[in-house]
Amino acid sequence: MSNTNENYVDLKLSDDTTMSAYVALPVNKTDKTPAILVLQEAFGVNSHIRNIADRFAAEGYVAIAPELFHRTAPKGFEGSYTDFPAVMPHMQALSNEGLATDLQAAYDWLQQQDIDKSSVFSVGYCLGGRVSFLANAVLPLKAAVSYYGGRTDQLADMVPKLHGPHLFFWGGLDKHITDESIDTVIQAVEAAGKDYVNVKISYADHGFNCDERASFHPKASTQAWALTLSFLASQ
Length: 235
Fold this sequence. Notes:
With 235 residues, this protein is α/β, with parallel strands linked by helices. 33% of the residues lie in helices and 19% in strands.
């Protein structure tokens, strides 16, 4: 699907804000079709995130990618991978409460579609990896996936609320996320008796899944995609 206005929906949120979201639909959608929230990196719902949503649609999912910076950035905002300071203010303005409102709105939109309403998942990358973890705690998801979600350890107290099994991906070369941070998350999940799969790809760096970043690792991305699809389909 191309990046046209027809691919977007505007969602009215419970806090009286409006959030735009990119939507990708499979060819043969039925009431047995699963759905997935695709959660952005720190750089917005850009071509990479839209492409991921399109890829999930090609695999038979209704995909929605909400613009999580809608309170501070213009509609359609896309940051540059070479200018992280420019996206920092938008990241710093996020709150768990606001994100929960955003996630609920995207989930509610999916529930209004002709889909399998019991088969809703989430996947997130970088910032979105953390948000996908939050989504699994605040929404009745069937399962969720987090790619290199920095600061997920700060959500460890929400682990008892996780609804579905969680798949974690980390890069072994990632200097942004410490082993201590990862251990905090996994130990909390284990202590709560929640089902999870924890994958560290030793030869991959932060952002290994994004073909628009210098850290892109084609083999790691291919392997993670295959495992992601298998993990979701097996739930």
